[in-house]
Amino acid sequence: MRFLKNVFSQLHSFVLWALLSAIFVGWIFTFVTDTSPEKKVEIYCYVPELRDTDLAVELERDMPEGLRMIRVHTFTYVMMNVDLVENGDIYILPESVIGEYEELLADRDAGIKVYDAAAGKGAASQYIGYEEEDYYLFIGANSPHLEDGKAQAVAEALMGISE
């Protein structure tokens, strides 16, 4: 009985240490499993549903030489740190929001239609949950892969994925 009383009196300390340990382990995991922007391509999709891991695995099968990983995220992934989305390599945006993100795009006029709402068909639609409007693919203005062509190669691989 005395043991339980002692444990419960210090429960707040145990919870605090458990919380700090979880944060530390999460930070280490992120540090170990990530790489520099020059060795990865990040794709941001403005969609409500996305099979991000499956799409990344599919794209990594024919990854350009020199890349270590491809990451795919929805825009809600970076809600707490909006600066992350500014450094994206590839953006998939619905026609209605292109103007809002214009400063992130290398060339607004170079957008490639990846989903045709009228036909109901699009690139990688088994992974990307497009809504009922046309979607376009853009290369990011701040992408470290503008000059080396790796973002373009990944974009072409994404366009090649069909149902």
Descriptive report:
This protein has 163 residues and is α/β, with parallel strands linked by helices. It folds into two domains: 2-32; 37-159, D-Maltodextrin-Binding Protein, domain 2 (3-Layer(aba) Sandwich). The chain is built from five helices and eight strands. The chain has helices spanning 2-9, 11-33, 52-60, 83-86, 150-159; strands at residues 40-45, 49-50, 69-74, 90-94, 112-116, 121-122, 128-129, 135-139. It has a six-stranded mixed sheet with strand order 3-1-4-8-5-6. The longest helix is centred in the first third of the chain and has 23 residues, at 11-33. The protein is elongated and about 70 Å long. The mean pLDDT is 91.
Write the topology of this structure.
Elements: H1 2-9, H2 11-33, E1 40-45, E2 49-50, H3 52-60, E3 69-74, H4 83-86, E4 90-94, E5 112-116, E6 121-122, E7 128-129, E8 135-139, H5 150-159
Parallel strand pairs: 1-3, 1-4
Antiparallel strand pairs: 2-7, 4-8, 5-6, 5-8
Compact summary:
The chain has 163 residues and is of the alpha/beta class.
Question: Structural class of the secondary structure composition?
Answer: alpha/beta
What is the succession of H and E elements?
HHEEHEHEEEEEH
Global outline? elongated
Number of strands: 8
Low-confidence stretches: none
Please give the largest β-sheet.
6 strands, mixed
How would you describe the oligomerization state of the chains in this entry? single chain
What is the overall pLDDT average?
91
CATH class categorisation of the largest domain: Alpha Beta
Give the neighbour order of strands across the main sheet. Answer: 3-1-4-8-5-6
Total discrete domains = 2
* Tally of separate helices: 5
Helix content: 25-40%
Radius of gyration: 20 Å
Work out the strand percent: 15-25%
Span from first to last CA? Answer: 63 Å
CATH domain topology of the largest domain? D-Maltodextrin-Binding Protein, domain 2
